[in-house]
Predict the 3D structure of the following.
Amino acid sequence: MPIVLRVWSAGLPHRRDRQPGFTLIELLVVISIIALLIAILLPVLGSARRDAQLIQSMSNLRQIGIASTAYSTDNRGGVPIKGTYRDLGNGPVYAGWCTWSFGGKFADRYWASRSAGVFDLAPSARPLNEYLYDGRLHPPVTGRANEDGPARPRGESERAPIELEVFQSPRDIATLQRAPFGQITPGVSCYDDIGTSYHWNYKWYFQLRDKYGLLNKRAFDQAQSNWQNQVDFQPSRFVLYHDQVTDAITGQYGNNGLSVVDGDFGLENHSAMVFFDGHASFEEVIARENSGDNYDLAFDEE
């Protein structure tokens, strides 16, 4: 049978061959290529992220629009927008309208000291909340439809930690609502400031005022009772809710809006909005041009 002889070397141990590696120049080339790829891809990834966030924001607006239609159906054509007031007991009753009365979470404490707190709205004072987040509201939405109501109903003095996500735009990072209006307040988003990133089109009642010569309050009341009126509202081109970019450009009262506003989605003067017929869009808002007389925000159909 065969015999295998093993021969052991008494010399030095066998050394493995050295593995090849990168030279310094090769390593620098690789790092340069990676840096170049990052520089190319980051803007693309950032743009894709903004596009996704814009889609999310318009989805939020569509849901708010659907809830508004449901509210209208349940309330004889009324809109989920009403004035609010604060009764100070022995003092005067303060009343007013604000562009965030339709829905959202608690406003920031800042608003408790402004105009006697008439704009310091609680979730239960905002009509659309019961259509979108009924189970989260304690107490539930109060007051009768289409009537002015208290900004902070009885039994709701504390600011409960409630979040109502559909009212928050993914790109909302700073509020423009505090005095002076239109100026950025660092560190506070519009959502955390007033309870919602979105605003109702404060100018829509001007259309009736201009058409029929009604006084402001009568135009407001008449507009509430004509939610679905095709002649007055042209629902496919009439804005219902929008982000605060439109609010800043058109101004809250009259023509005191800003000419140029940095948009939340990377384009100046561009705003996410939903129309009376329920479709959402991303539109350019040009001060004193496409908003028409008194900023009724009726965009021309293409």
